[in-house]
Design a protein that fits this description.
The protein is mainly α. It has one domain: Ferritin, core subunit, four-helix bundle (Ferritin). It has seven helices and no strands. The radius of gyration is 17 Å and the shape is globular. The protein starts with 6 loop residues before the first helix and ends with a helix.
Length: 211
Amino acid sequence: MLKLPTVDQLISEFDLALRTLAAPASSVRPHPDAHIDEADLSAEQKQHAAGLMRVNHCGEVCAQALYQGQALTARDPATREALHEAAHEEVEHLAWTEQRLHELGSHKSLLNPLWYAGSFAMGVTAGLIGDKWNLGFLAETERQVSAHLASHLRELPQQDAKSRAIVEQMHTDELSHAEQAVALGAADLPLPLQVLMTNVSKVMTTLSYRI
């Protein structure tokens, strides 16, 4: 049975939103690129790598909002715990991509607050529909994120080993989240919804690459 969130929970969610959007993220695990030297990149290569990393950072902001919204309305404690665990690893991804953007002399997406609000609303909605669909939404999101990360590994400059190490670890983590959701009973989302998620993602990635 769904329980309405308490005032304390709503305050906590607002605090998480502020920290995600405004505070520097931290990582418990070592940064995947910590012991890799910076490559000699041209200005054009740096700009392209930064654009891709900005998309990845934006994706992690969306993931935080999505999982927080889903956990808020999840009914089963196991589902809620899986969402919290996935969100915890996404914070580390935020830290890795944020630092890499700084190293590349670039910035986070200016549209992050907009993406956060939309993703949180989608997460709350997914949770309200039911846990198997909630988990299905998590699994499909992670599959689509994994596909984006795989494409970024093909697009990043070959010599940019620092960015590639970060994206490779993120790719591994996202696949693990999808597998965990399936193991917990995720339902396969209807094809039209999968297509809609893909199209929304394309808009987000296109804009975040530039802004």
